[in-house]
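#structure-requests
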Amino acid sequence: MQRIFHTPEGVRDIYNGECSQKRKVQEKIHRVFHQYGYEDIETPTFEYFEVFSREVGTIPSKELYKFFDREGNTLVLRPDFTPSVSRACATYFSPDKEPVSLCYTGNTFINNTSYRGHLKETTQMGVERIGDESADADVLAMTVECLLAAGLTEFQVSVGQVDYFKSLLKEAELGPEAEERLRVLISQKNSFGVEEFVEEQKLKDSMQKAFTEIPQMFGSEEVLKKARSLTNNACALEAVSRLEEIYEIMKNYGYEKYISFDFGMLSKYQYYTGIIFQAYTYGTGEPMIKGGRYNGLMKHFGKPAASIGFALEVDNLLLALSSQKLISEKEEKPEVIEYEPQNRTEAIKEAQKLRAEGRCVALRLKKEAR
């Protein structure tokens, strides 16, 4: 039998300086979570398939790692923390009586293709605020502080509002297939494709204009005014008002310079119901943070509650820090005390003394004495 010494496709070893730097960044982010009043939770690496089923609105079934237990139940490796934490919250807490603030760190597993070199196992850190309708701006502020704590100085948190798009969809009365096609075109920022598609649907002129403009509606707070001008839909206008309110609160935090808006941001996770956001910086083409409001998810687990959260992709963050030379590539080596057998006692005492002072010390028997 051939012995295999390399990892499977889509996973990798992390070692030496990279591993220690990853731990340090995680500690800094974890400290921010605690400063905002979030408590730690650990959920299982694998769950019943129903926790991540299509009804929940998570990733497609074909991208899940599925297997069976001895009773024949279908289990999956965790692809996303939000449904897991929501399930645990419904089991152990009462978000209808008091808001629940939970934070986590762990790995997720998605059986995607090797296209663009995406990893199949990644480390995520994140928070879930369950039972609170008013925490949008606070969660965005924490998003900014996590990135600042990690060492980034230049980044943007792009904020969208899925209710704006959903309100227009409801008014347009499109069928499910047409809705999905339009969602894909807008997500791809394909303005010409959207224009051609809405013309085929024979929508009224005002609806055609609104949908055609959405892919290009991103940027500063001026975009909010543009969004207002495109519709008289009460629900859509309420979604814009919510973004305006959030932006004013971000000014109180002093973080408004990190915030931009994108009405064409539409997640593949269907459980999002309000604001949705992603954080970007130089050095990586993928977002470092993804999050949003998901007021309907807890209903699936028997305890309806307004909820919001985000997941930080630690590996993407480290890539950005490295690309911007904001993280040291040099591994911190411990001090080494070499000793001969007859001097072992003195060497141990010296090492213990230095360790008590907070220094890192390794004991090593001299080569010639081994």
